[in-house]
Amino acid sequence: MIKNISKFLILFFFLTNNITAEENLMILKLKHGDVKIELFPDVAPKHVERIKKLANDGKYDSVVFHRVIEGFMAQTGDVQFGNSSSSDYDLRRVGTGGSSLPDLQSEFSDIPHMRGTLSMARSQDPNSANSQFFICFKAAPFLDRQYTVFGKVIEGMENVDKIKKGNQDQNGSVENPDKIINFKSI
Asked: Which of 26, 44, 57, 149 is the most exposed place for a label (fewest CB within 10 A)?
């Protein structure tokens, strides 16, 4: 009897733990392949909630990577001006917009900006993150505790590495930028 209860509890723990983990996994589809992302709801709950909402509402689909700096990061997520399928698409303004939702209060943590880290972009105001985010190509410790880390790439970083790079002399601005094909929860 005790053996059966123990087996049941182990199975229950495994199944519920797996379900919880899967709800925090997302797939970012790029032209070079899929990128699997793990979100950190315990670290940045409001930012994770925002990313999931915008992604699952299709707001990131066709949004360009407007600022991509070799050896640093790839920035995307301007759902206002960066959706290449929208009549509001304006490559000159991409990076200045957000979503129709209010800006978020910062949720800074001690999680370092390492290769594959996803973090929210913002203006000089620490509480101005909205929809834009970036993925680090390599460690960027100068960003630690100044930007909200909300996730990390767990598979497919080689596809992130292939995102078209921008002009170094123009702060990473990209002509004919690559875009997000689709971004959804698993």
From this structure: 57
7-54, pLDDT tens digit by residue? 443 434 444 444 447 889 999 999 999 999 999 999 999 999 999 999
Distances, alpha carbon 110 to alpha carbons 43, 124, 145, 159, in Å:
9, 20, 6, 27
DSSP 18-86: HHHHHTTEEEEEETTEEEEEEE-TTT-HHHHHHHHHHHHTTTTTTBB--EEETTTEEEE--TTT-BTTS
Q: Are 151 and 51 in contact (CB under 8 A)?
A: yes
With 0-12 / 13-18 / 19 or more C-beta atoms within 10 angstroms meaning exposed / middle / buried, residue 139 is: middle
Q: What is the pLDDT of residue 4?
A: 55
DSSP state of 129: B
| CATH fold of the domain at 26-185 | Cyclophilin (2.40.100)
Rounded to two decimals, what is the model's pTM?
Answer: 0.89
Measured distance CA(176)–CA(9) in Å, rounded? 54
Residue whose token pair is 């000089």:
124
The answer to whether residue 138 scores a pLDDT higher than 80 is yes
